[in-house]
């Protein structure tokens, strides 16, 4: 069986990939000499043309092509079977960055520079990348991102992915997809920032041009992916600004009323496109809705996309969406109140739980406003009971009608289960904060304690589920996972002095944070994300995290 080895050489935007084919014989010395020769040329920064001539001369040398042993491959940075290494190899950073074939010049505008070591630059590069790299990035996205963010029809995307006449909005979407794929990859790290910058630059250009032709589903999908990317990079302020662009865009295209009974024939009308096109509109709208609620929950911000004016069906099952099987989802209110529970989709469960969070957030905001204005506080007992019952029903559906999140290895299902428990914490915390003064102090204290214990129990379940995350590769963890986990940490910290149980739980959670890899730097952990991801409610926790302290060191303070 043939073995292939690829050695990527980068200098001034040019790259060469000679193939080493299996054949009988030794000649390892010749291969080593060739590698040494290539490295020497790189170190001396030979001009591009000279480097190409030398490499071509080496290729046409009379020396026979010989197979390389695993040891030689490891020493020289070569990788057997033509596969990309899963972990960084001994290639230099600039060598690993040589993933283009000299055709990537407009990846970043002239005012933006790639952050490579001084020895090598990427000045004369062009875009798009090679067919091989193109296929790799597409497949990386579909394998590692789509399960968590199911807004793209794979077959439809691949039909135009390599087209030479893509619309600007399609280019934006593709670059955003590749930026996320690179972020979840070990071998394409050097491409993360250039792809992101190119995406943002094109998005801004489209906004300035004001061409309605480019205001379409692909543009909304690109903005949604940018929000997720910026959140993963802990650029939370920028992520919220980008989220606002995504929200207004789906509203402007009226994606919130795709399935209204009276069809006005606008851009969101089901008559404008086939089932897959209309379903993509639904999905990008609901993903924007989901981001709105999750980010608002994180910082107690007002909800932008109000559920009460939505007339768009929930996403269909992903299998139906991908195959084009014309099966429509329910409306949100139908899904939340259906009399009999049944298996749905992880995405829809996340949407329902996010809606419960939104209603809880609205209730506590109304309470605070009424209190500030000195209005008579209304008794919302019935509403609280209804929300409580609804939340309990959704948790029951997750436990009875879906596979075990620990065994399924479905990032969206595991996220839905953790989000469900965080919703319990959020609901209990809201009830504790808005609890009216009781005529019977003992009864009020008992109710407060019940909510507190229930939230503690939910945090225990989160810790149990989060333990599974430590055993998964980064690509199998939902990109927004830090948000619910850190929300749980904030609650435990706020109640740390209440009882020893809270102290034990936060120690366990911080132990998990130390084991979870930081997507931005695999040498670091979630503890390094904590100071950038939490809000000012827990200043002491942030300070201790920044200083590298563990919960054991500050619990007794």
TrEMBL record:
GO biological process: DNA-templated transcription
Keyword Repeat attributed: no
One Gene Ontology CC term in the entry: nucleus
Pfam family for this entry, one: Fungal_trans
Keywords on record: DNA-binding, Metal-binding, Nucleus, Transcription, Transcription regulation
Transmembrane parts of this sequence: none
Keyword match Transcription regulation: yes
Cellular location(s): Nucleus
InterPro entries attached to this UniProt entry: TF_fung, XnlR_reg_dom
GO molecular function: DNA binding; DNA-binding transcription factor activity, RNA polymerase II-specific; zinc ion binding
Principal subcellular localization: nucleus
CDD domains: fungal_TF_MHR (cd12148)
Domain Xylanolytic transcriptional activator regulatory: 239-321
Name this polypeptide is given: Xylanolytic transcriptional activator regulatory domain-containing protein
Source organism of this protein record: Penicillium arizonense
């Amino acid at each position: 069986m043939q073995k292939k080895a690829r050695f990527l050489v980068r200098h001034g935007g040019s790259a060469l990939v000679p193939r080493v084919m299996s054949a009988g014989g030794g000649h390892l010395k010749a291969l080593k000499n060739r590698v040494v020769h290539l490295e020497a040329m790189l170190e001396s920064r030979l001009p591009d043309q000279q480097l190409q001539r030398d490499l071509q001369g080496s290729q046409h040398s009379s020396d026979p092509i010989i197979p390389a042993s695993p040891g030689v491959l490891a020493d020289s940075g070569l990788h057997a079977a033509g596969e990309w290494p899963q972990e960084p190899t001994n290639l230099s950073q600039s060598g690993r960055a040589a993933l283009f074939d000299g055709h990537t010049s407009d990846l970043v505008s002239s005012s933006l520079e790639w952050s490579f070591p001084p020895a090598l630059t990427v000045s004369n590069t062009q875009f798009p990348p090679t067919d091989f790299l193109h296929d790799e990035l597409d497949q990386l996205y579909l394998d590692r991102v789509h399960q968590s963010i199911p807004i793209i029809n794979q077959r439809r995307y691949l039909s135009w992915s390599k087209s030479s006449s893509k619309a600007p909005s399609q280019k934006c979407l593709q670059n955003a997809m590749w930026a996320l794929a690179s972020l979840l990859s070990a071998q394409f790290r050097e491409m993360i920032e250039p792809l992101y910058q190119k995406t943002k630059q094109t998005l801004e250009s489209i906004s300035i041009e004001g061409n309605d032709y480019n205001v379409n589903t692909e543009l909304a999908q690109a903005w949604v992916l940018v929000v997720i990317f910026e959140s993963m990079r802990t650029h939370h302020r920028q992520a919220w600004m980008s989220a606002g662009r995504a929200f207004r865009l789906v509203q402007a295209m009226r994606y919130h009323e795709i399935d209204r009974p009276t069809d006005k024939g606008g851009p969101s009308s089901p008559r404008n496109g086939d089932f897959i096109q209309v379903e993509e509109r639904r999905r990008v709208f609901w993903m924007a809705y989901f981001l709105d609620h999750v980010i608002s929950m994180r910082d107690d911000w007002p909800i932008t996309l109000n559920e009460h004016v939505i007339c768009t069906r929930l996403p269909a099952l992903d299998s139906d969406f991908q195959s084009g099987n014309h099966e429509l989802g329910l409306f949100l209110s139908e899904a939340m109140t259906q009399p009999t529970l049944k298996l749905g989709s992880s995405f829809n469960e996340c949407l329902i739980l996010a809606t419960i969070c939104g209603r809880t957030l609205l209730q506590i905001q109304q309470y605070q406003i009424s209190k500030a204005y000195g209005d008579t506080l209304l008794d919302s007992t019935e509403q609280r009971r209804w929300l409580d019952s609804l939340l309990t029903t959704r948790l029951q559906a997750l436990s009875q009608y879906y596979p075990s999140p620990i065994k399924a290895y479905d990032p969206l299902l595991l996220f839905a289960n953790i989000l469900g428990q965080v919703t319990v914490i959020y609901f209990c915390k809201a009830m504790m904060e808005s609890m009216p003064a009781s005529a019977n102090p003992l009864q009020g204290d008992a109710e407060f304690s019940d909510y507190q214990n229930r939230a503690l129990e939910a945090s225990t379940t989160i810790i149990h589920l989060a333990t599974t995350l430590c055993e998964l590769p980064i690509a199998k963890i939902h990109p927004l996972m830090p948000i619910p986990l850190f929300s749980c940490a904030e609650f435990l910290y706020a109640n740390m002095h209440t009882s020893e149980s809270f102290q034990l739980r936060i120690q366990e959670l911080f132990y998990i944070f130390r084991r979870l890899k930081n997507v931005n730097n695999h040498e670091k952990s979630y503890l390094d994300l904590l100071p950038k991801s939490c809000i000012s409610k827990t200043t002491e926790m942030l300070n201790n995290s920044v200083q590298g302290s563990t919960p054991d060191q500050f619990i007794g303070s």
